[in-house]
UniProtKB/TrEMBL annotation:
<dbReference type="InterPro" id="IPR027417">
    <property type="entry name" value="P-loop_NTPase"/>
</dbReference>
<protein>
    <recommendedName>
        <fullName>Protein ImuA</fullName>
    </recommendedName>
</protein>
């Protein structure tokens, strides 16, 4: 296949992902990195990650978790970690719109680090400052059977500051801890 995987995401930048597959996309990004991974979310949220459940993606011992009191605190923790650079990947779960100022602060911090930032955002909540924005979801498959261990995933770029938007159809390979490309197409972003 002539088009390579979109990973690793461009370092020294902050990216965004939305959609029902956002967490698995973030785990796939983490699988392409080495060193610790900082995952930040708000402490009032009841749902959370079960680190041992991420073993198909990366060694859960690499995962550091932080909980901010609110979104402002979550963004501040992300910004400081990106600026410090000792954690090469900082992932934050963001539920409210990110203002342009906050988005630019994350970009500047990532560039200073240099580190890679990834915000898991609700649809329509991203920042104009993001380097790329993705929509991650399962791909519809005809004839999908119960017990299929690696369903298709669709990763659609809906924003890309450094090139054309593309759509990757992949299947996760747990043995190699990497996605297998099934199809890549150029595509105009769909409204999300």
């Amino acid at each position: 296949m002539s088009t390579p995987l979109p990973f690793p995401l461009r370092p020294g930048r902050t990216h965004e992902v939305c959609g029902p597959g956002a967490t698995s996309f973030a785990c796939a990004v983490a699988a392409t990195t080495t060193g610790p991974i900082l995952w930040v979310n708000e402490r009032h949220r009841r749902e959370g990650l079960f680190p041992r459940g991420l073993a198909a993606f990366f060694d859960p011992d690499r995962l550091l978790m932080a909980r901010g009191k609110d979104q402002t605190d979550t963004l501040a923790v992300m910004e400081e970690a990106l600026r410090d650079g000792s954690v090469p990947l900082v992932i934050g779960e963001i539920r409210s719109p990110i203002g342009l100022t906050e988005g630019r602060r994350l970009q500047l911090a990532a560039k200073t680090g240099p580190a890679t930032g990834l915000c898991l955002v609700a649809q329509g909540v991203g920042s104009n400052a993001a380097e790329t924005r993705w929509h991650a979801a399962p791909a519809l498959q005809k004839g999908l059977r119960e017990g299929v261990s690696a369903p298709r995933l669709r990763w659609r770029q809906i924003k890309n500051k450094s090139g054309p938007c593309r759509v990757w159809e992949v299947r996760w390979n747990a043995r190699d801890r990497a996605p297998e490309i099934l199809d890549v197409t150029d595509s105009a972003p769909e409204p999300v």
